[in-house]
Batch of 4 targets.
Target 1
Amino acid sequence: MSEPWSLSGDYFECCNCAVACPCVFGSDPTQGNCTVLVGWHVRKGHSGKETLDDLSFALAAYTPGNMWKTKWDVAIYVDERATPAQRKALESILGGQVGGPMAGFGSLIGKVLGFKFAPISFHAEGKKRSLTIRGIASMRSAAIAGAGGAEVKLSGAPMLLAPEVTVAQHEQLSLTDYSWKWEGAGGNSYYSSFDWKGP
């Protein structure tokens, strides 16, 4: 049986859909396909006795149509600062082999293009978020202004990566890796804290 594990911290994502991305409701992406980059930063985490604090990881995905009806191509990136033991733990968590949220996405993934270790920089400050995977990808976003300047929140949608997210808009989303070359600005972004546990 797998050892207990938990990860908590900050997450955000940017995609090419218009704000707010309809994919989380099971609707078709606004541009016909979806290119999305998701990043997480672990403030506190462990797998068994292995500490996973202060590590970041990311997942890039492409779907040629509705995310519920077409298989995803995905690529996974993990902070190169992780030790061999930490890498092994994160590989199991992100691969869904030890339960948790990623296990639920397994049936939607058609192809895993690769699992790479790279320098990852993740920043969460106020209503702004940014992530850089050195030499591969970068994204920046800021919360959109709601009524009276309040943040716009979304909860309960079936494909959200957290129970409740803040709706944002990205200032940049770029990625060049494998056969992908993404470049854009002004599309959708969501961010939130996250709290995962398993198995």
Target 2
Amino acid sequence: MVTIIGWDIGGANVKAAWLTYEHGVTQDVKVASLPFEIWRQKDRLPEVLKEAFTQVTLEMPHAMALTMTAELADVFRTKREGVLFVLDRMLTAFPDCASSALSLSGDFYPLLEAIQQPLDFAASNWLATAMYLAGQYPDCLLMDVGSTTTDIIPVLGGKPAAIGYTDLDRLKAGELVYTGALRTNLAAIVHQVPVSGQFCPVSSEYFAISGDVHLILGHIIPDKYNCPTPDGQLPGIGSARQRLARLVCADLDMLSTAEIEEMAGYIYEQQLEQIQRALQQVMSRLPQLQTLPVITMGLGAFLASEAARRGGLAAQELGTEWGRKASEVAPCVAVAHLLAAHLERV
């Protein structure tokens, strides 16, 4: 029996998955996700890693597998610096555990070797998901909508068929979309919204985020709104309406509940359109995807499923098979499985 912890260390969240694995069969999975804005207190990363560790296990695993996206945070001068920081803090937090990082080539390397070529390990979490799920769904389209971003990953013949591997190339290919279920500034989704029969330009201040829209519309519950609110209030429908009113420089004395809900519905439609445009871009390159299933996952799986449905595609939520919590942290569950299988082979 092999025990593994898979990690997905992002700029806004630290996610972990504990996996018990024997002879190719998963015996147990436990997951944790902690909000952690690395640009605010990056030196707390080892502490947060240990906290996530204790949420999934009380014993050291045989090995750990690492993916990351935190290197993009602007607290680091370069992505190289960010990768090296994450690798170093993993070694600091767990010096006695054999830990490996997944490279963009799809291979595992011990952390001390990964340090030699840091850019090979930047933004590798999407690849872990694609490589693992390709074994279960050899021909499909994966859509993972998280708190911040959307991944659109074609899988053909049991292998990822993405053309972009770096964030830059994935953005250009439509395989990465910077829109998510919680943290997206609404001014990045809309430039105007309907208010009382007229379109009103929005402010570009940090007044409200996508989590407010989805809370108001009932797509998420307050417990899922696990990032800081723009105004520092606790997440709730009432405070979300206050924040959304400020998007048009108003407040709850000036706008009715119906007017605010109309704004929220319009923003939701525009966010769906962002995802649909990227989906169409990927589909135009690989028209055979039109007949294949779309596997949706992440905190914003509801966005992925609706975008797929409107595109005439058959959507299947990974949460139905894995459970919602595991589906919301798919990359760290996937990378744990990949390393477990790798260790059994060698």
Target 3
Amino acid sequence: MITIIAAALAAVLSGIFFALTLARVPNMHVVFYLALGFSALLVIYLVLWTLSASEKYARLAKLLRRCYLVCLSVGVAFFIILQALIISGSRTDDVEADCLIVLGAGLRNGAPSLILRRRLNAAVDYLQERGDIPVIVTGGLGRGQTVTEAEAMFRYLRDRGVSEDLILKEDRSTSTRENLAFSVTLMQENGLDTENTKVAVVTNEFHLYRAKLIAGKQGLDAVGISADTPGLYLRILYFCREAFALASEFLK
């Protein structure tokens, strides 16, 4: 029975993954892994439920089921706490910055992705109020791309009136940690005092708490500028994914 259920779930997941692939849904692999995780939890519970129906294994199954429920409860509670932290840090800080760092978020055919455009637009809005501060654009060369994220971001800002002299390109990074670590090096190379410069990290609201946490570990006096995430689907997906990324950051 359990084998049949597991096979059915595998078939359903394969169908979901295939459909998402055809639809070119953003971050479809995240949806797939979330579905896989929920399916694994369900299969484990069904196995324990089946064992409990057997007199031979009833006592063991009862003990294992209690352990399962305790672990599941702890996991859910931890997830809720992480979401509370993410939400608490998702708003723009009302502090004037001396420098912006716009974090990369992928390209589509050599141009900023929808998520990245939201970050860049938030930076443009801020720079219109105070356009005399440097802005660092971050991101290296992604798979299948011909330009770095930093170069595409540079062009996007330039085309919207940001002075080229104010834009610094960090074009080696492949992660948030590298975005900020390499940006610190770039600031130092350009004569910016990293200890006494108020840096505003520009990213989407779901990412802001972790980005500021990492920036603080890099020795930056960081505040956040929040860019909204388009669509309910993407917002839910990214907030769920961010909980696991934040948990990983706490474990490092």
Target 4
Amino acid sequence: MRIRTATFAVVAFVAAFAGACSRVQAPSADATARPQSQVHGNLREVMRGILFSNSNVVFFAQGADPTTVPQDTDPSSAVNPIAGLYGGWEAIEDSGIALAEAANLLVIPGRTCANGKPVPVQNADWQRFVQGLRDAGMAAYKAGQSKDMDKVLDAAGTLTSACSDCHDVYREKTPERGGEAARCTAQ
């Protein structure tokens, strides 16, 4: 009789639990809405904080096979990312992904240049330059995965081209071309 009562209690509990679960409400439309991207830094800050340092990892790797760079005695505080805790080829992979993902930050509406002008996210050439950065980041990522120095050299060349293509139009403003006040203006 005890087993029968215990079995009945378990079945009753499972049935009650299943019934309660079936009455769980679906999330509201507000809860499933995609959060809006937010702008926290100007273009110069994003470039210096993310793109510059990650590009330099790829550029450094052109001249030093990551497997030959000795790891620091305390890799958690290494200044050289190739010699750090997530160093070697993994540093190149990580920097490649960071560059590709950072490309998304360059097309968020509302970001400004350091001079206060809006980043020209709607311009066709800007979109092309951002895609070039994204492609360069993925090339660096794949080079890191392959552990092939020739692919690192190719990725660094692709990255150099992506950066200079955009900088030639939007950043490199001599006094004759309006100086810093003219940045983020195509010329």
